Input
Amino acid sequence: MKTIAISFLGTQLDDRGKGNKRWDRWRPTLSLCQHEDLVIDRLELLFQPRYQALADELTRDINRTSPETVVIHNHINLIDPWDFESVYAELLDFALDYTFNTEKEQYLIHITTGTHVAQICLYLLTEAHYLSGRLIQSAPPQKGETVLGHYQIIDLDLSKYDQIASRFSIERKEGTHYLKGGIETKNKQFNRLIEQLEGSGLNLCLA
Output
């Protein structure tokens, strides 16, 4: 199965100059394609047309260090990259127009680059399954790490967190039992009152 990454071009973090020193600096989109344990077969790069030169330079660097990665340019027309409504609408259009092939490809939505508004919109669209895939977050190197830094994949499929839901349910039942003072009763009105108090988060001491 091929791995496809969808990422905004980082107009600040991905732009580290044109000299050789740029190779000594962490660039999140470039590093995403350089990890030995994560092969990116295709990178869907999102950017505004005015950043074409930066996108071209980044693409050349990716081709140089990760020749197996195919970079696809996607122009995103953002009137105001900090306006939530317009950014969400533009990304929703991209998601609806994009052809996802989940049988043969797995998708990673990169939420490190772009404005905070864009990152939130990517998260919301992934959670709502308009963007089919998992989130991936890259981070700069910590002490002892290479310039590539590290990454974390986040799966929003809540079906994988049944254990958390089960624990919440157990704790809620234990809270109800405590409010009843350990006394089991079949009085429906009393039980309903206790459930309402427990649900409101009130901490009562029954003597």
In short: The first strand starts at residue 2 and ends at 8. The mean pLDDT is 83.
